Amino acid sequence: MERIVLKFLKILLFLAILVIGVSIGLSNRQAVELRLEPVPYAIDLPLFVVIFAAMFAGLLIGALAMWLRDGRVRRRARQAEHRAQDLEREVRQSGDGERADRPALQKPKAA
């Protein structure tokens, strides 16, 4: 039941964003001149194209910033994975993994 509600909410959110995007596009159809000052060229574009391009550029910049920020976490996770693999290899190479001064762990019984 919870999955159905979440799917419905996702669809509802998507439709709301779609309606907002369409209304922005329809209400901002006038042409604007896009000019980058050092370059002598200018281009006329509909205002909604400029708005959506700016929003997309902001999305990309934010995603890149998050990816760069989370690089430390990904690196630590990789190091932990390598360490776990090394320890597993070490246990396999040491025989059956049991020590004489400590009894072997019993497997849990199925319930």
Quick structural summary:
This protein is mainly alpha-helical and 111 residues long. It has helices spanning 2-27, 47-69, 71-93, and strands at 31-35, 42-46. A two-stranded antiparallel sheet has the order 1-2.
Describe the structure.
- The protein has 111 residues and is mainly α.
- It has a domain at 14-87.
- Helices cover 65% and strands 9% of the residues.
- It is built from three helices and two strands, in the order αββαα.
- The protein has a two-stranded antiparallel sheet with strand order 1-2.
- Strand 1 (31-35) and strand 2 (42-46) form a beta hairpin.
- It is elongated.
- The relative contact order is 0.05.
- The model has no long low-confidence stretch (mean pLDDT 87).
Shape: elongated
Main β-sheet, spatial strand arrangement: 1-2
- Unreliable spans are none
- Strand content of the residues, in percent? 5-15%
Number of strands: 2
Helix content: 55-70%
